[in-house]
Amino acid sequence: EPVLSAPSHNPGEPVVPPATARDSLRGVMCVPVLQDEAHKCRVKNSTSAGPDGISARRWNKAPKTVKLLVLNLLLLAGRPPKALTRARTVFIPKKGGSGPG
Asked: What are the start and end residues of every segment in region (Disordered) (predicted)?
């Protein structure tokens, strides 16, 4: 008898499709962001603004209610808008020599 000869499921049980990554996060993502969590959502002020034009300083100074609204809308949508998934990388040359370090 072959080693892997067991049936894939019991005949009396319904066949359930495999879960996707989105399904595995569904229980976690349904919980709204709380005010305390939104207040802790800070970015280093030395970080430059991205293509959206929102600087770290502006985000950090935003009222708690605005942060709460933005974060919960992002969770509700299930994925960020394309505008928030774009980034810009700027390489800043070291002062002095051009060696690796």
From this structure: 1-20
